[in-house]
Amino acid sequence: MNVSEPLLSDLDAQTGGQSLRNQVRSLLRSWIITGRLEAGSRVRESDVAEELGISRVPVREAIAMLEGEGLLTSMSRRGGVVVTELKTKDIEDFFDIRERLEGLAARLAARRAQPGDIRRLRWYIAEARAASEEGREEDFSAANLDFHTSITRMADNSTLASMLEVVGVHLRWNTVPNRDHEQILGDHEQIAEAIAAGDEDAAERLTLKDIHGIRGKVVPGLEEL
């Protein structure tokens, strides 16, 4: 298993003093999202514990939680777990869910947004535009992810946020190939303005359009596993 920073010392500041088990869960999730743990790769409890300098107990508990979310899969014959590999049908199903959940989040955000929320959305768009102009692809992806997660926070629905978090990890939020930056920025600007105007129907419709654009780039390029 080839892993690197961030480790728990960095993660603790980001997770608000969560239990060690939940910190390990969050860390393993981040490794799955960024591809540090690739689909099909084996995750060894002992390796993770050694890498983090902790006992196996919280690692075992975190792995069990991620199995429950479907992010890790048990290897019945060999023992241990691997990062779940999704078939094309699985990814289609997750996009069906993501479209509806993000559409609902945008609708609720338009209903509940405060002026500071709108400023934050516009700031993420500006950050993404600057990153695009300077060729900073990772920063561009990060700013766009922040844009989407900010809308989810604005929706102020913890159940919805939890469901979207799981779907997002399965779909690897930041792995959308060959999507036009100007199209993304334009879509996000329209969504932000609809939310600012309190137009729930437009916010939901434009979000569905944005996610459909991501889906159109991801799904046709997949090979059936």
Structure, described:
This protein folds into two domains: 8-83, Winged helix-like DNA-binding domain superfamily/Winged helix DNA-binding domain (Arc Repressor Mutant, subunit A, Orthogonal Bundle), CATH 1.10.10; 88-221, Four Helix Bundle (Hemerythrin (Met), subunit A) (Up-down Bundle), CATH 1.20.120.530. The protein is built from ten helices and three strands; from the N terminus they run H-H-E-H-H-E-E-H-H-H-H-H-H. The protein has helices at 8-14, 20-34, 45-52, 56-68, 88-112, 115-133, 137-155, 158-170, 181-196, 200-218, and strands spanning 42-43, 72-74, 81-83. It has a three-stranded antiparallel beta sheet with strand order 1-3-2. Strand 2 (72-74) and strand 3 (81-83) form a beta hairpin. Residues 1-6 and 13-17 have low confidence and may be disordered.
